[in-house]
Amino acid sequence: MLSRKGLIPDDYLLTRLAEDVLQPKFKAKAGKPRFVAKNGVCNVAHTNIREQGRFLQDVFTTLVDLKWLHTLVIFTMSFLCSWLLFGMIWWLVAFAHGDLDQRGDGDDFVPCVTDIHSFSSAFLFSIEVQVTIGFGGRMVTEECVSAIIILIVQNIVGLVINAIMLGCIFMKTAQANRRAETLIFSKHAVISVRNNALCFMVRIGDLRKSMIISATVRMQVVRRTTTEEGEVVPLDQIDIHMDNPVGTNGIFLVSPLIICHVIDKHSPLYGVSATDLQHDDIEVIVVLEGVVETTGITTQARTSYVSEEILWGQRFVPTVSEEDGMYAVDYSKFGNTVKVPTPCGSARTLDEAGGIARLKLDEGVTLRTSVRRRRGATVHVLEICNHARGGQDVLVCAD
């Protein structure tokens, strides 16, 4: 999300390079589009909208949402059209009053606007009025009331155009998604054991020193589901609860944090095992929201993780260390993970077997794996470890 726009120094690009080198490569499943791209863009196309006039009812938001090229064209044309329109009006006023026929022969004739002899001079006077630039050669006299009224109207119209267009340019420059460019997510999500529970974890960070106030994190699982009545929901969005380091959804994002979701019986990932993860079409959306400290504008950063980007049996390496009496963050390790022994069964299977805590207490459990090659990729074969006391079998992944 950052490297594509070149907004961060080259040192930070090591984060992406390290992830690309150290993490396994996965090929996206054919025919399964993402709901949210890695850079946070929603992959949704709105078609067959019949009530297009609704966009014109909110002109300001429509202008802000336009591309920069279109905004600049509208910005330029709005001023040119207003200058030309009032230039034509000033020329008509001068023509109706007879100003164009007088050449300054010394008579007592008083024009409505001095020094207007053609449409070009009327156009220049229109620009001088609207942008409040007076060159001293042309001015409105007391001869014509209509000229005074037009002067007032053009000034009001000019102020309205300035307020709308300059406000639009400012809002496009200070959009909240610009601040989101320095909010980063780990390229991969991981599933491993934490505090005797199977957890889904992602890492988030902020590259700026100015903080995000009242930052909150939300997660949703998006997948195809079928209701009990047989209705197919192609994009069923299911909220999942996070067990953040501070205990609530609010986070203090002063250093990179690992956002953890405990896979319990209320989780939509409760029945997903390591094998199911590689076959099911699951997408986990992560949304980070907060208020920018320097501007007070609410910002939002988004990303998503499909099944191929969720690493089972790995956890993130630490990035924070203490150096010379202060804490230092090494962003080259931001997306790096290490392999740890993790049960390959789903959280439901583990609960039925007595839980991970019981597995750890058993002295007869050994973590064994065998590795073999297939089609150029490393495949970790699940070993069945006999439960020494209860006689049960436990599936464990250990790399």
Write the layout of secondary structure elements.
Elements: H1 13-22, H2 53-56, H3 59-65, H4 68-97, H5 119-130, H6 145-173, H7 176-179, E1 183-185, E2 189-194, E3 197-206, E4 212-226, E5 232-240, E6 250-251, E7 257-262, H8 274-277, E8 283-292, E9 298-306, E10 310-312, E11 314-316, E12 320-323, E13 326-329, E14 337-339, E15 342-343, H9 347-352, H10 356-361, E16 369-374, E17 377-386, E18 393-397
Parallel strand pairs: 2-10
Antiparallel strand pairs: 1-3, 2-3, 3-7, 4-5, 4-6, 4-8, 8-9, 11-14, 12-13, 15-18, 16-17, 17-18
Helix pairs in contact: 3-6, 4-5, 4-6
Q: Can you give a write-up of this model?
A:
There is one protein chain. By secondary structure, this protein is of the alpha+beta class. Helices cover 28% and strands 28% of the residues. It has helices at 13-22, 53-56, 59-65, 68-97, 119-130, 145-173, 176-179, 274-277, 347-352, 356-361, and strands at 183-185, 189-194, 197-206, 212-226, 232-240, 250-251, 257-262, 283-292, 298-306, 310-312, 314-316, 320-323, 326-329, 337-339, 342-343, 369-374, 377-386, 393-397. Strands 1, 2, 3, 7 and 10 form a 5-stranded mixed beta sheet that branches. Mean pLDDT is 76; it is low at 1-28 and 363-395.
What letter string, H or E per element, gives the SSE order? HHHHHHHEEEEEEEHEEEEEEEEHHEEE
Low-confidence stretches: 1-28, 363-395
Helix percentage range: 25-40%
Q: Count the E strands.
A: 18
Quick take:
The protein is an alpha+beta fold. It has ten helices and 18 strands.
